[in-house]
Write a structure and sequence with these properties.
alpha+beta; Immunoglobulin-like; five-stranded antiparallel beta sheet
């Protein structure tokens, strides 16, 4: 009885492993039907932190579930990254799989980007795959893919201030630096003026003294 139970448990475990192995490689990604295609979209590296190099990641399959490695020649499918009121330029989606070397993942396309602000991001895909036009948006959330966070929780041993805080500090310091620079320039200008006047005074004194000397010598002559 015990042997039967053990065999059943082992079989169940093996089935679970096979199921996980055959699943899509994306974990915290959003999967959706887009026309005749299956889009699986998220960040390439998660958890996602500000100021760390990352990429928009797309796993693309056809209606039968087969990975698509070619977006066309030339490819027209692009992705724009949106956060708040900011929208990036269209980014190129580069294929992960290299047919020459056999390296990379079939059906994977990546667009490199470094998120610099914490918060939710939207990936807007536009263009076409073959004759099928694409216009689809994917937004980060608890149910889709990772929201961008400041890396302070995972920094060690020293915690750097968030980028937004540094930017705010720079904004506050800029007027002070400008005022200090203007004051230094004015002081330099005053010093230059005073130095110039001193030189002029010396020259005038020398000229007047020389004229007096000449006059004295002339007066002594019979």
């Amino acid at each position: 009885m015990f042997r039967k139970f053990t065999r059943a448990a082992a079989a169940a475990g093996a089935a679970a492993i096979l199921t996980l192995a055959s699943a899509d490689p994306a974990f915290a990604h959003e999967q959706r039907k887009v026309g005749p295609y299956q889009f699986t979209v998220g960040w390439q590296h998660e958890p996602t932190h500000t100021s760390v190099e990352n990429a928009v990641q797309l796993f693309l399959k056809d209606a039968k579930g087969n990975p698509i490695d070619d977006l066309g020649s030339p490819p027209t499918l692009k992705v724009q990254v949106i956060t708040g009121s900011q929208t990036s330029d269209p980014l190129e989606l580069k294929a992960s799989f290299d047919p020459d070397t056999g390296l990379g993942s079939h059906g994977e396309f990546d667009a490199s980007i470094i998120p610099t602000t914490a918060g939710d991001y939207t990936f807007h895909f536009t263009g076409a795959i073959g004759s099928d036009k694409i216009d689809e948006r994917f937004t980060s959330s608890d149910k889709t893919f990772d929201t961008v966070r400041d890396p302070t929780d995972v920094e060690f041993p020293a915690k750097a201030p968030p980028l937004a805080q540094l930017a705010s500090s720079v904004d506050r310091l800029t007027p002070r630096l400008d005022n200090a620079a203007n004051a230094a320039k004015k002081a330099k200008d005053k010093a230059s003026t005073a130095q110039t006047l001193g030189i002029v005074a010396l020259v005038v004194g020398a000229v007047v003294g020389g004229a007096g000397l000449v006059a004295g010598i002339a007066g002594r002559r019979p």
